[in-house]
Amino acid sequence: MSTTRVSSHFSKSRAVILVPGLLALTAAPVWARHIEKHFKVDAHPIVTIHNPNGIITIKAWTKQEVMVMSDQTSDAIEVEADQANNRVDITTHAISDTASPDDMRADYQVNVPEDADLQIHDDSGAVNVANVLGDMNVETIAAGVGMADTAGYTTVSTVNGSFQCLRCGGRIEVRSISGNIRLEDVRSSDVLAQTSTGNIVFNGQYLPNGSYRLKDYSGVVEVRFSPADSFDLSATSLKGKVNNEAKLEPSHHGFLPRIGNSLVGALNAGRARVEVTSFNGTINILKRN
């Protein structure tokens, strides 16, 4: 069951918009239409969003309902939010053959229960998720993705959008072609981060028996550590450089040097496994400041 509020008006205001790695004060667009809907859901609801262009902000709350607020700039598109059993589907689609790319923009504010599972597709704009503990799959073309305090199985795929994660747990898999990847204070035991021409920064916790795989082609991979951390390291750049500030001992897990510039060894007991690979990029193993 849902409740709906719809308003059509034009207003000029200023809005604070969260984008990955940046809090910016910016003038809001002139909205043509505002919609608000509420859906009562059971435990572990699924929320899907398909949006060609716009900013999607998703936050967890304690209510057992999904609230969808949308703003669109043009009457050439339509926003649909519907419920089927324990699933809420949100879609932006054109209703005019002459709709331009700018007309296709819709911004969303969505509140969900903490245990919600998310499936998001946003071609351009930004996706921001906070405090959601369910599984998430995010696909974008140019939209950046920012997450904070999440804990589910997270998969992210972008073409040239960036990805930033702060205090994220659960299994994390992120792949990009040219976007940058930044993992700060990550609390996951299974991380895969891969990009072709972007940069990767990993500054997280190394949990016992954890696996951390960082791969790039030509960017810079930076791995931050503290002297008390414990991991077994294999770092290889076929044609690039490997710079190291860690005092390593022989590998505990049988890592062997590979072709090119390689670094193999253990820090302390080597309880986690860290594998960093690059073709001609630079790998930096650096102490935390």
Description of the structure:
The protein is mainly β and about 290 residues long. It has 2 domains: about 1-175, no CATH class; about 200-289, no CATH class. About 0% of the residues lie in helices and about 60% in strands. It has strands spanning about 1-5, 15-20, 20-25, 35-40, 45-60, 65-70, 75-85, 85-95, 105-115, 115-130, 135-140, 145-150, 155-160, 165, 170-175, 180-185, 190-195, 200-205, 210-215, 220-225, 230-235, 240-245, 260-265, 270-280, 280-285. The strands form 2 sheets. It has a 23-stranded mixed sheet that branches. The protein has a two-stranded antiparallel sheet with strand order 2-3. The radius of gyration is 21 Å and the shape is elongated.
Mean pLDDT: 89
Helix percentage: under 10%
The low-confidence runs, each spanning 5 or more residues with pLDDT under 50, are 8-26
Radius of gyration: 21 Å
Gross morphology:
elongated
Strand content: over 45%
Structural class: mainly beta
Q: Give the number of helices.
A: 0
| Number of beta-strand segments | 25
Q: Main sheet, how many strands, which sense, barrel?
A: 23 strands, mixed
Distance between the termini: 52 Å
Number of domains: 2
SSE pattern: EEEEEEEEEEEEEEEEEEEEEEEEE
